[in-house]
Write a structure and sequence with these properties.
With about 90 residues, this protein is mainly beta. It has one domain: 10 Kd Chaperonin, Protein Cpn10, Chain O. Helix content is about 0%, strand content about 45%. The protein is built from no helices and eight strands. A six-stranded antiparallel β-sheet has the order 6-7-1-2-5-8, with no helix packed on it. The protein has a two-stranded antiparallel sheet with strand order 3-4.
């Protein structure tokens, strides 16, 4: 992988939700909701609090739920990724 997040940041590959088509309606990409689920690809080392390194709770391979407008979108090797702070991750899905 060519992207390594720094500090308490996490690299997430966004997972597109399955499209359910009703009738013959076409919904353009601009009107669709942003995905809120993704797969963790890489994590940073953590952040320093009171002089001690606090590690990140998620690990590569975890499926996570994150805030709707969280993070920074990045395109790398033709794939869409999101770089978020650990605090923007709401839950780990099992």
């Amino acid at each position: 992988m060519g992207i390594r997040p720094l500090g308490d940041r996490v690299l997430i590959e966004t997972l597109e939700e399955d499209v359910v088509k009703k009738g013959s309606l076409f919904i353009p990409d601009t009107a669709k909701e942003k995905p809120q689920q993704g797969k963790v690809i890489a994590v940073g080392n953590g952040k320093y609090e009171d002089g001690k390194l606090v590690s990140i709770d998620v690990k590569a391979g975890d499926k996570v739920l994150y805030g709707k407008y969280a993070g920074t979108e990045v395109k790398f090797d033709g794939k869409d990724y999101l770089i978020v702070r650990e605090s923007d991750i709401l839950a780990v899905l099992s």
